[in-house]
Design goal:
28% of the residues lie in helices and 24% in strands. It is an alpha/beta fold and 271 residues long. The chain binds zinc ion (ZN).
Length: 271
């Protein structure tokens, strides 16, 4: 079986048992398959490069309980507080503040009923805090557009009726903090033109310090049993423990796309 991208086919025999569904773009196809020895069902909608890295990450990390998928096998976490809010363009949501895990606090913004839906997936984005992008709309990264696009066009989309934004405070600069992120920017902009990863290493950090356990624990607490994850980051895919029904690439507004079959699954309709 293969995953198609740009007319090329990448062999994934033995990793995905896939059945293609209708695709509206030339870039991505949707696939449903079994993955990992624990039997977590994953249907991916992903570019081939993402699929290959994701499968590597997921296969390497998945080794714990039968409920668990990925590295986030931490169990539930009770929120410290919760309130009902109304957001412009989204409507009424519940906001949960969870305790810090692995130096990250998950703020869950939940629309509608997301608990125990019998395998009907809900749209979820795991968003790493980025002050300059999220708040000030820096052009250096895509964080701001990705955040607003999900909030307005997915969570606020009445087609969905439900979903969750899992915002991770403490993930600034891939987990190195804002001050160090600014130092990393200086190295990236300097004469050596270091990559973000190399700059973080130069500063004494790992290329990516983030853990997604706090997001996994929030999904456990919310009793979400299936998600469509909006991300282009395979570490986020590997990091949550809830079954993933699909992955929708979410790297920029231009790449925003979702297959009609995935939309139908989100709505609970047969495909
Ligand atoms: Zn950013």
């Amino acid at each position: 079986m293969h995953v198609a991208s740009h007319g090329a086919f990448w062999p994934l025999d033995g990793l995905i048992t896939a059945a293609p569904v209708r695709c509206r773009t030339q870039v991505f196809n949707a696939y449903r398959g079994q993955h990992c020895q624990h039997g977590s069902a994953i249907a991916g909608v992903m570019a081939a490069s993402l699929a290959r890295e994701f499968l590597f990450q997921a296969g390497r990390l998945c080794s714990r309980s039968t409920r668990c998928f990925g590295s986030g096998c931490t169990g539930s976490a009770e929120p410290e507080s919760m309130a009902t809010e109304t957001f412009r363009g989204v409507g009424e949501v519940r906001v949960f503040a969870y305790p810090v895990q692995d130096r990250a606090r998950c703020i869950a913004v939940v629309r509608g009923n997301v608990s125990r839906l019998g395998g009907v997936p809900i749209p979820v984005r795991i968003h790493s805090e980025c002050l300059l992008g999220d708040v000030f709309d820096s052009t250096r990264c895509q964080c701001g557009p990705q955040l607003r696009d999900f909030m307005l066009n997915v969570l606020g989309n009445d087609e969905h009726r439900n979903g969750a934004m899992l915002y991770l405070q403490g993930h600034e600069g891939k987990g190195i903090g804002l001050s160090n992120k600014l130092r990393s920017y200086v190295l990236q902009d300097g004469s050596e033109r270091l990559s973000e990863e190399d700059a973080n290493i130069r500063l004494g950090f790992a290329p990516d310090e983030r853990s997604f356990r706090a997001a996994a624990a929030a999904l456990e607490h919310l009793e979400v049993d299936s998600v469509v994850l909006y991300t282009d980051n395979p570490r986020k895919v590997a990091g949550i423990s809830t079954a993933i029904a699909a992955v929708v690439p979410w790297s920029s507004r231009e790449q925003r796309w979702i297959d009609e079959a995935v939309w139908a699954r989100i709505r609970g309709q047969p495909t």
